[in-house]
Amino acid sequence: MQSNLAIAQAAMPGSKIWAVIKADAYGHGLENGLHGFALADGLSLIEFDRAVKLRELGWTKPIMMMQGMFESVDLDVISQYRLQPVVHNHEQLEMLSKARLDAPLHVHLKINSGMNRLGFLPEQTHDAYSRLTAMPAVGAISLITHFANADSRDVSPDVATQVATFKKHTADIQAEISLSNSPAILMHPEVRGDWIRPGVMLYGGSPSSGDAASFGLKAAMTLSSRVIAVQSIRAGDSVGYGSLFRAERDMRIGIVACGYADGYPRHATTGAPVLVDGVRTRLLGRVSMDMLNVDLSPVPQAHVGSDVTLWGDNLPIDEVAAAAGTIGYELMCAITPRVQRKVRS
Ligand SMILES: *Cc1c(COP(=O)(O)O)cnc(C)c1O
To answer: How is domain 223-334 classified at the CATH fold level?
Structure first.
């Protein structure tokens, strides 16, 4: 995580970094995020209970709440723990206008430059900004927007169009700006902001169809288990629920203690890559709740107890995700509580 953070920094020298640690640091654990990103300039997330935890664990630098407050009571925790909310809608402006706080807040005014998810319309920027500047509850104001298509070159709205829209409506406002997520950091070096907001790249996931290693990123998470049973099956025999895989010849298969109740994607199908004792092989048939099946043909020495890597070291999470019709982001976040977590030293 430290080395991935350094890659984000090297890609955008001079920008400050909000390390994005929503969803318990994309499934890696909040405390691991806190330690891994100790050198970041700020931490950015959604969940108030997690933000409080960061303060209790000793984080004193800025914390940005990327969806801001959901109701006005959230302002109590924001104020008590010196959190910096994003302000993206009129309801939040109303909450802030009525707030009586001990000290003014640093807020992040979000502009919808084309993603149409959160934020004020570009032409509302000045109105929202001037309302905020007049509020006793508000101190510093920064500007933020988010890209819809930083991972592709030919989908509209493209990054350049969103940047142009943002710049056009904010040119005369003196404020720090924060624009780039991981794909923009890695693939749009021309986009510069005072702050960047890397998420998935900090965990070694690829933010695009490209390979994470080609950007120098390293997997922070390895999901591993063991073979708990070996079956020798005959040509014509099938494996598991629905008998989705049927052997064309006699073969040995390994049963691995990992299933969708651990967060392994049930949508993965025969052929998804798996490492057994470091050798690349493939998933067979349907993933069940607590187990999955692998082909031991390329690993004749494999036995009960053999190590299995589902993703991580030497097996990019993005490849497994592709075999399950999803993205590495989703797999990281979906690891369930029953999976034992060990921190590498
Ligand atoms: C999640 C998120 C990010 C980080 O995105 P990555 O693609 O993981 O780098 C940045 N900004 C906002 C507003 C987000 O919600």
So the answer is: Lyase, Ornithine Decarboxylase; Chain A, domain 1 (2.40.37)
- Could you read off the pLDDT of 238-289 as tens digits, one per residue? 999 999 999 999 999 999 999 999 999 999 999 999 999 999 999 999 999 9
Query: SS3 helix, strand, coil % of the chain, rounded to 5?
Result: 30, 20, 50
Give residue 169 CA to ligand 1 midpoint distance, Å. Answer: 22
User: Which of 200, 193, 176 lies closest to 7, judged by CA?
Assistant: 200
- 95, amino acid identity: M
Q: How confident is the model at residue 344 (pLDDT cuts 50, 70, 90)?
A: confident
**CA 46 to ligand 1: nearest atom:** 15
Confidence band (pLDDT; 50, 70, 90) for 345?
Answer: low
Tell me the CATH class for 2-206: alpha beta
Q: Which atom of ligand 1 is nearest to the CA of 118?
A: 13
Q: What are φ and ψ of residue 170, in 5° steps?
A: -125, 0
- CA dist 177 and 339 (Å) reads 39
Question: Helices (DSSP H) in 171-316: which residue ranges?
Answer: 182-187
Domain ranges, ordered by start, for the chain: 2-206, 223-334
Among 43, 66, 188, say which to mutate for ligand 1: greatest number of ligand atoms within 8 Å of CB: 66
Strand 195-196 with 223-233, pairing: unpaired
